[in-house]
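Async update (no meeting this week)

Hi team, since we skipped the sync, here's where things stand on the single-chain job. The sequence we agreed to prioritize is pasted below, unchanged from the tracker. I ran it this morning and attached the output directly underneath so nobody has to dig for it. Comments welcome in thread, and please keep replies under the output.
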Amino acid sequence: MNKKLLITGAVASIVLLAGCSSHDEMETSMSNLTNQVSELSDKVDMIADDQASMKSDLATVASEAERANSRIDNIATTYKK
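Output:
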């Protein structure tokens, strides 16, 4: 009974010490993940800005296309053979 308790205590202390030794690796991993998340957030913001810019450009192109179509329609109605 004492041997089982001693072995269990030794295993538990080894596990606890092993958990404490990898704390630096966990902090490094956490900082890397934080950096990656901030990079992805910056990229998402950049893509959102690009999308807003394209949306305004699309509105300009659509209005120019509408103007060109109305001019073509006016030419077609006034043309007589």
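Quick observations from my side:
The helical segments are 2-21, 23-78.
Residues 2-78 form one domain.
Reply here if anything looks off.
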